Structures are given as C-alpha cells and as structure tokens.
C-alpha cells in the first residue's frame, strides 16, 4: 500500500500522513481551527514557561551561580533563558516601583508648587522691613539680596540714611555690587523678573532665550537646554523630569548589564567567552531585581527597619561572591577580591556616569 502524503499548511512541504506534526517546521498536521486549537499554543507555552521559570527561580535564589554554570555547560532547555528570566523579573520590579514613582513625582510637583507660590508672594522685602531696626551691614546686605529692584532699594536706603548712618558711597557699593539681584534668579541662572515680563508680553521664544543668556552661535544641544529650562520655568513642575528619568532606567540597564559583564571578562579573561560572562550577569541581575522586588513588596505591607533593608542589600554582595566562586570555579579569596573590585568599579565609576547621562537625557526629552 502506497504512502499517503500530507501537505503542511505552514511551510507547504509534503510528508507522510503517519506524522502528527510536520517534520520540516513542527506545526501540527491536522489543525482545524477550533477554540481548542486557537488557545492550545498559548496555554501550552504559558505552562511551559511557568514550569521552567520555577525550575530556575528557586535555584537562582538558593544556589548562587549554579544556573549560569549549568546553562553555559549546555543544559539550556531545563532552565529559563537568562535574558528571558531577566526581562520577566525586571518587568515585575519596575511595575512595583511605578507606585513609588507616582508618589515621588506628586511630592516633587507639590513641593515646587509651594516654593513658587511662596516666591510669588514675596514682594519688595524692604516694604516689610523697618530699616530703623537694622543694626548691621550684614542684615542690609541680606535685604538687598532678597530684593528684586535695585532702584527702589537705593531709594529706601537713602530715605533711611539717618538711621543706618551709611554714606552715599556705601549705599552705592552695596546696591551696585556684582551679586546684587542674584536672588531674583532663584538658581535658574537668569533674571526671573525679566523673563516674567517678556512672557507676559508674549515675546517670541528666541528673544527670551537670549535674555536667559543663550548666545547667537549656540549649538543644537545648548538651544534645547534653554528651551527645556524655559519649559520647566513656565510649568513650575519637575515631576515630569523625574518621571522621564525613571522611565529611562530600564533602557539604560540594557547598556549597564553588558558593561558589568565586560568588567567580569576583564577579571576572568581566560574563563570563557564574553557570552559566558553575559549569561552570569543576566542571572545575577535577575537575582538583584528579585531582591529589590521583594523589598518593595514587603515595604508596601509593613515598613521594614532601615538596618534590615541594609542587611538585605549587603546579602546581594555576599551572593555575588558565592556566585563567582561557583561559576568560575575559583577560591574564596579570589572570589571575594574580584567581587569587591567589580562592585567598586561598577558602582563608583559606571553607575555615576550613567546617572549623569540619564539625568541629562531626562531633562532634554521630558
């Protein structure tokens, strides 16, 4: 009896009807579209992921470096792929962290709103200060620093000259000092009173940027800095900058993690390819995000003491030392020494640079 051939609906290759699955692409041979077939792959993939996840999750927590070593040795179907593990745990962490983000963004916006409201209600300080009671030049200098109008300050000082005993030369030196009116900028780097006037008049932004101090030949980045600074000043809200900063961190981790693996490669140059160190880094960062997630979850329920949070964070370094010893098959001293140097370089050099870059990015694109 001749063999009957089936044609795969997916790859259109022919095969014997004795096969339940196409030997060329693996699709089920007879897969009439029913509700069962529609959801079969989704459910089966989900439980496959779930089983491998739990087979990987507990060894990840309890056996530092074990899964990474087994994965490099070739046992790759038994455990969840390191990148997949990292993505799953990172998503959970940033989801939990988003609740804290919202609180911080709201708190920053509220604080700035209160500060600017206070600034708005500060008129000429000399209208509220009785210069008769001023006994020292220091208080006068402070009053001048808090003032916004040089001409009015000078007039008031001249009116009260009989009480202060200051000469005309002294008044001129105080009022005309180089740092007079710096308080008007409130650390913005420009005179806010001037900018407020220009904004009220509907002045074109290009002119306002020049009033803020932008040169005519400023580059694209510098122009954007002034544009964002004015945007911040107009909105009086800093929460969006913080939100953009937090939103950038997951993306930044895809650059930081390979750098961590590169540091490991530098200290274990003869211990396998760079991909091996990358596997170790994926699993280690998965452990870190798991610990951070647990800390966040527990603190939502009960506020842990600071000393306990510190001990938990310290445990991540001890985990690293044990993981290095297991994965690279080396002594305790080497593992501890390399763990210290790796952590120091990553936390003291790489992370601060990343923090600055993320902060600049957040300000430029919030």
UniProtKB/TrEMBL annotation:
<dbReference type="InterPro" id="IPR006162">
    <property type="entry name" value="Ppantetheine_attach_site"/>
</dbReference>
<feature type="transmembrane region" description="Helical">
    <location>
        <begin position="340"/>
        <end position="365"/>
    </location>
</feature>
<dbReference type="Pfam" id="PF12412">
    <property type="entry name" value="DUF3667"/>
</dbReference>
<feature type="transmembrane region" description="Helical">
    <location>
        <begin position="279"/>
        <end position="301"/>
    </location>
</feature>
<keyword id="KW-0812">Transmembrane</keyword>
<feature type="transmembrane region" description="Helical">
    <location>
        <begin position="79"/>
        <end position="100"/>
    </location>
</feature>
<keyword id="KW-1133">Transmembrane helix</keyword>
<keyword id="KW-0472">Membrane</keyword>
<protein>
    <submittedName>
        <fullName>DUF3667 domain-containing protein</fullName>
    </submittedName>
</protein>
<feature type="transmembrane region" description="Helical">
    <location>
        <begin position="249"/>
        <end position="267"/>
    </location>
</feature>
<dbReference type="InterPro" id="IPR022134">
    <property type="entry name" value="DUF3667"/>
</dbReference>
<feature type="transmembrane region" description="Helical">
    <location>
        <begin position="307"/>
        <end position="328"/>
    </location>
</feature>
């Amino acid at each position: 009896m001749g063999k009957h051939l089936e044609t795969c609906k997916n790859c259109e290759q022919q095969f014997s009807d004795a096969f339940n699955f196409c030997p060329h692409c693996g699709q089920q041979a007879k897969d009439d579209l029913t509700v069962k077939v529609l959801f079969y792959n989704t459910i089966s993939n989900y439980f496959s992921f779930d089983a491998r996840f739990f087979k990987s999750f507990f060894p990840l927590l309890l056996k530092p470096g074990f899964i990474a070593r087994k994965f490099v040795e070739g046992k790759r179907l038994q455990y969840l792929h390191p990148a997949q593990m990292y993505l799953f745990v990172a998503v959970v962490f940033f989801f939990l962290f988003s609740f804290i983000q919202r609180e911080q963004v709201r708190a920053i916006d509220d604080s700035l709103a209160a500060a600017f409201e206070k600034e708005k209600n500060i008129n000429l300080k000399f209208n509220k200060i009785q210069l008769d009671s001023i006994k020292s030049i220091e208080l006068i200098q402070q009053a001048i620093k808090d003032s916004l109008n040089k001409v009015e300050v000078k007039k008031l000082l001249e009116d009260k000259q009989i009480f202060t005993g200051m000469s005309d030369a002294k008044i001129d030196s105080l009022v005309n000092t180089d740092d007079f009116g710096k308080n008007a900028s409130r650390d913005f780097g420009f005179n806010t009173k001037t900018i407020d006037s220009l904004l009220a008049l509907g002045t074109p932004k290009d002119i306002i940027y020049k009033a803020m101090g932008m040169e005519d030949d400023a580059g694209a980045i510098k122009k954007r800095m002034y544009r964002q600074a004015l945007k911040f000043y107009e909105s009086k809200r800093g929460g969006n900058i913080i939100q953009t900063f937090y939103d950038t961190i997951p993306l930044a981790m895809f650059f930081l993690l390979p750098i961590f693996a590169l540091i490991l490669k530098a200290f274990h140059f003869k211990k396998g390819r760079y991909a091996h160190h990358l596997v170790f880094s994926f699993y280690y960062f998965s452990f870190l995000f798991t610990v951070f997630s647990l800390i966040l979850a527990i603190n939502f329920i009960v506020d842990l003491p600071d000393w306990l949070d510190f001990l938990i964070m310290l445990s991540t370094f001890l985990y690293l030392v044990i993981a290095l010893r297991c994965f690279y098959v080396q002594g305790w001293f080497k593992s501890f020494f390399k763990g210290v140097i790796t952590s120091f370089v990553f936390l003291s050099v790489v992370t601060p640079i990343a923090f600055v870059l993320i902060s600049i990015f957040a300000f430029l694109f919030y």
